[in-house]
Design goal:
heterotrimer; A mainly alpha; B alpha/beta; C alpha+beta; C: 3-stranded antiparallel β-sheet; 2 helices
């Protein structure tokens, strides 16, 4: 087995950092106020450096998100978690784009979707967001949330069904668990 | 025409706008590497870990995803571990059955000189990736620094009660000779005194002239208290501290 | 620099093969955590490469060989004595019960010393495995069932007794023990 020098490890960590800091930052921005984002991102990667040998090869992003979530729970001074869909979208859209919420996107009304999401629990919304925004497989979601893969699959299935039911169309919920 | 709500949601995805590199990232990287001492970083020889690759599609057959548990309640509330230092893996570890506060329990090992001599350090209770409570020297941040969750608050009331119950029952039956006629009623009284729901007390038998005293066992997993006959012991009628 | 990093990473990745951290496949919370070579393992689930485990209220450590375990126990006792600390408590027997999953003291060995309580061997992944034993300084009872239930083992399990094989019909039967 090739032996690895400390320099190599530092280089590899730098590569990991540069690849994933945008994603982690974006994720953390949906969770905390802007003034706390930097400290959480830095704490996340400090943990990644300490636990460098343990980061799973095939789900690095999910692992980092899980660590970030944990740091959010422990570090945030300002308190309020910003997971609400509307907040997260609203802050990044210009005024013109934000007015889209009043109308439609590709022939579909957005307001019912937002209303449906607001009726779901925080955990369900978090799951839906990981699916829709980060295109995560249940196996990655399991890593982020710290649950078993089976549990993740069941929760994903239930969340999809519930969302569709809340939007008044049961048939859309019938996706493979 | 209706669309999958997830598709709609995906098309509203703000992540692309929220995810960005900043000019300060290089400085952050340098700070991270400089601030974490080399001894804290795991040595490759000690951990059978997996190196992070370049984030591309390097596929290694047989590598399983490593699920990180964030559970905050242990399965077996009586057993915790005391780390001897704040690293993963620690250079040493003691496992304990706790009576009450894990931090206090490990603190006793520190102040008695079992772990190290000198003034005991600040200790924090964390939950490891495997769902075990670990008491680690350091402040509240030490858990997250090591990739663990903080163990929030104390045991739940239920868990603390079970631990105290276990200790009380074991001590009661182990240090005196409780005869057969009293064993079941007293065990049941313990369950009632500790206000435990759904527990059963069973008699394992084995009573006899040469086995006149009660032995006991408490199993929090099956919520069972067992009592049965045993021989007399030198510990019977030993005063407890 | 980039190319060098890429080559190093590729070589490392290729050479890792199956060297993944061993993880409880069900990702359940640990019932019996024990320390083995830098990892926490759950004895109730899988001993992995450990063959000797010492379990008590104070200690849960596993080792590749019984000799290593015995050395570690002896060293801890010396260290504790050196520090002038009295660790031995009422609830721990001074010397332990050793259960072996093979006859003639072979195979994996579970070291127990907690007194005054039925110990369910399934907790430590040792249910229905005992094939020989050595009793330490405290008398022991062994039972076919959990929680002291089932038949009482008829062989000699008084202090300092030992047996290269279990009594007839008792091989791989013991499910709980009680240390006096």
């Amino acid at each position: 087995m090739t032996s690895v020098t400390a320099d190599d490890r530092t280089s590899l960590f730098g590569v990991l950092f540069r690849e994933f800091v945008p994603a982690v930052r974006g994720f953390v921005r949906t969770l905390v106020a802007e003034s706390d984002v930097d400290s959480v991102v830095q704490a996340t990667f400090e943990t990644a450096w300490i636990r460098f040998d343990s980061i799973p090869l095939l789900s690095q992003r999910a692992w980092l998100f899980g660590v970030a979530r944990n740091h959010v729970r422990n570090h945030v001074r300002s308190g309020r978690r910003r997971v609400l869909l509307v907040d997260a979208i609203g802050v990044s859209l210009s005024g013109e784009e934000a007015s889209m919420f009043a109308g439609e996107l590709d022939g579909v009304e957005i307001a019912p979707l937002l209303a449906a999401l607001n009726q779901m629990t925080n955990d369900e919304r978090e799951l839906i967001q990981l699916l829709a925004w980060y295109e995560m497989e249940p196996s990655e979601i399991a890593v982020v949330l710290g649950i078993s893969q089976n549990t993740a699959r069941v929760r994903v299935h239930r969340a999809r069904k519930k969302l569709s039911a809340l939007m008044g169309d049961e048939s859309l919920g019938e996706v493979a668990p | 025409m209706s669309r999958d709500p997830l598709e709609i949601l995906a098309s509203l995805n703000p992540v692309a706008r929220l995810a960005e590199s900043l000019s300060s990232d290089d400085a952050m990287l340098a700070t991270i590497i400089a601030s974490v001492p080399p001894t804290t970083v795991l040595s490759r020889r000690r951990r059978r870990g997996v190196w992070a690759a370049l984030g591309t599609t390097v596929v290694v057959l047989g590598v399983a995803a490593f699920a990180i548990l964030r559970q905050e309640s242990p399965a077996n509330p009586t057993r915790i571990v005391c780390f001897t230092d704040a690293s993963v893996p620690p250079s040493g570890m003691h496992a304990l059955d706790v009576s009450n506060d894990p931090v206090e329990a490990c603190g006793v090992l520190w102040s008695n000189g079992v772990i190290a001599s000198g003034e005991p350090p600040a200790l924090t209770a964390c939950v490891t990736n495997e769902g075990t409570i670990a008491v680690i020297p350091g402040d509240q941040q030490v858990c997250a620094q090591l990739g663990f969750a903080n163990w929030v608050g104390a045991f739940s009331d239920d868990e603390r009660r079970i631990v105290e119950f276990q200790t009380a029952v074991t001590e009661w039956f182990g240090t005196q000779c409780v005869p057969q006629g009293d064993a079941l009623p007293q065990a049941e009284q313990f369950v009632a005194d500790f206000d435990l729901d759904g527990w059963t007390v069973t008699d394992s038998g084995h009573w006899g002239v040469d086995r006149p005293c009660a032995a006991s066992g408490v199993d929090p997993v099956t919520k069972t208290v067992n009592v049965g006959g045993r021989r007399r012991s030198a510990a019977d009628n030993t005063p407890t501290t | 620099m980039r190319i060098r990093v890429a080559i190093v990473a590729t070589v490392i990745a290729a050479s890792i093969g199956l060297a993944a951290p061993s993880v409880n496949a069900a990702h359940e919370r640990m019932v019996s955590p024990a320390w083995f070579e830098g990892e926490l393992i759950d004895l109730s689930h899988d001993w992995g490469k450990a063959t000797a485990c010492n379990v008590s209220a104070e200690e849960s450590r596993c080792f590749r060989t019984e000799a290593e375990m015995d050395d570690d126990i002896a060293q801890r006792q010396r260290t504790v004595q050196d520090r002038g600390v009295i660790v031995a408590s009422l609830s721990t027997c001074a010397s332990s019960l050793k259960l072996y999953n093979g006859t003639s003291y072979t195979g994996t060995v579970l070291n127990l010393s907690t007194r005054f309580s039925y110990i369910n061997l399934s907790t430590y992944g040792f249910d229905n495995l005992a094939s020989s034993y050595k009793v330490g300084a405290c008398d022991v009872d062994m039972f076919a069932g959990a929680g002291g239930a089932g038949c009482l083992y008829p062989g000699d399990t008084s202090a300092n007794s030992h047996a290269v094989a279990m009594s007839s019909g008792w091989n791989n039967v013991v499910s709980s023990v009680y240390i006096y």
